[in-house]
Prior knowledge:
The chain is globular. A two-stranded antiparallel ribbon has the order 1-2. The protein has helices spanning 5-25, 34-59, 61-91, 96-127, 131-148, 160-168, 192-216, 222-234, 236-243, 253-270, 280-303, and strands at residues 181-184, 187-190. It is mainly alpha-helical. The longest helix is centred in the middle third of the chain and has 32 residues, at 96-127. The chain is built from eleven helices and two strands; from the N terminus they run ααααααββααααα.
Amino acid sequence: MFVPLWAWALVMGAVAVMLAVDLFLHRDNHVIGFREAATWSAVWIGAGLLFGVLLWGWQGGDVAGTYYAGYLIEKALSIDNVFVFALIFSAFAVPPALQHKVLFWGVVGALVMRLVFIFVGAELLETFFWTAYVFGAFLIWTGYRMAFRHGDQSPPENNLVVRLVRRVVPTDPAYHGDRFFARVDGRRVATLLFVVLIAVEATDLIFAIDSVAAVLAITTSTFLVWTANAFALLGLRSLYFCLAGLLRRFVHLHYGLAVLLAFAGVKLVLSETPIGKLPIPLTLGVIVATIAVSIGSSLRSTASGSTTLPPS
C-alpha cells in the first residue's frame, strides 16, 4: 500500500493536535472521575472508528478492514497495559491528580518508540522472509507466558531501567507537585514522579514489542500499523481511569489476550507458507469473538460470587 507524504503529515498533525487539546484541558492536574473518563474514551474510540471510515472511502474496504483488525487487537492489548499502570501507581503511591500527566507523557514516548519499532519490523519482514517465523514464534511464546505466567511481574521499583535512573540521575524520593525535576538544597534533582514516568516508559517498551509484532502479523503497511497503534494509544489514559475500578473483575481477560497473541503468531507463520495470509474478515471475527468471550466470562464469573476477587 503506497501512502503519499501528505497523508503521513495529515495524520501526524491530527495526532499532535489531539494530544495538545488533551494536555490543555488537563493542565490543572485535576482528579479524573469516571464520567469524564468515559466521555473522553467515547471521543477517542469515535476518532479511531472515524479514521477507519475515512480509510474506507479513500482506499476501500480491504484496507479499512485491515486497519480495524489492527486497531481492535491494539485496543485489547492496551487493557493489559492498564493492569500494569495500576500496579505502578499503587507501588509508588502516585497521587490521583498526577496520574494523568504521567500517562500523557508516557503515551507520547510510546508513540515515538512504536514508530521506530514499526519501521524496523516492517523492513525486516519485507526483506527477510524468515523473520516471519521468528516474530511468529515470539508471539506464540508471549501468548503462552501471558496465559500461564501472568502474575509473575516483578515490582516496578525493581525494574532495571528504574534502578539505573536512580543510580545515574540524582533523585529525591518525594513528589514535588507535578514537576519531574526540582531544586533541593541548591541541587537540581529528579523527583519521584520522574521515576514513575521512567517505570511507565520501560514497561511500555516491552508492551510495544508484543503489540507491534501482533499488528505486523496482520499487515506490513507501516501507515496502517502506526495509525492503529496511535488511535489505540490516544485513548489509553481515559481507558485507565474508566477501568481502574473494574480491573479486578477481568479475571479471564489475560487468557483472551494470550489467544490473540498466539493467533497473530500463527497468522504470521502461515503467511510464509502455501496457505498464505488469512482473510481479514476471519481475523476480525477471531479478534472480536475472543475479546467478547474473555470479558463476558470474566464479568459473569465475578458477578456470580464464585470467584474470589483479588485485592484492588
